[in-house]
Amino acid sequence: MHVEDCSSSAHHPEEVTIYLPRPCAALRDPLAQALRTRGAHICPTFDLRHALNRLPRCGCPYHGEEACTCEYVVWWVAGPDAGTVLLVLHGRDEETWMTLSWEDGSAASVYALILNALAELGAA
């Protein structure tokens, strides 16, 4: 796992991108289950695979029209106590980039909850 802090403050990041060397499709459902087990609430807002079911001939800049395996999943993750984090999974082939974004310090516990779930899955 590689973590990149994309914010201006290293002590209180507002956006972090985590590189995970595994397919998004293999990570998405187990991560959701691990988060729910920890008391998090997940509100899915977008899933590229579902969108492509309606647009099957949409061209991919990496794979073309026929063999696209790209994934793009967007969730709001709310912790059991307080705080909400925007979680974006961007998968291509056997790799996934997870971006976590939040606006205030109340989301620190949700960020930690997500990292603990990744560790449980062996992705961290």
Describe the structure.
It contains 3 helices and 6 strands; from the N terminus they run ββαβαβββα. It has 124 residues and is α+β, with helices and mostly antiparallel strands. It has one domain (15-120): TATA-Binding Protein, CATH 3.30.310. Strands 1-2-6-5-4-3 form a 6-stranded antiparallel sheet.
Tell me the CATH topology.
TATA-Binding Protein
- Mean pLDDT over the full residue set: 82
What is the count of structural domains? Answer: 1
- Enumerate the strands of the largest sheet in spatial order, edge to edge or round the barrel: 1-2-6-5-4-3
What share of residues are in beta strands? 25-35%
Low-confidence stretches: 5-12
Instruction: Please give the number of β-strands.
Output: 6
Q: Provide the structure class.
A: alpha+beta
Between the first and last Cα atoms, what is the distance in angstroms?
A: 5 Å
Tally the helices.
3
Alpha-carbon Rg, integer? 15 Å
Reading off the top of the CATH hierarchy, the class is best stated as Alpha Beta
User: N-to-C SSE series?
Assistant: EEHEHEEEH
Main sheet: strands, sense, barrel: 6 strands, antiparallel
Q: Outline, from the CA principal axes?
A: elongated
Helix content: 25-40%
CATH architecture: 2-Layer Sandwich
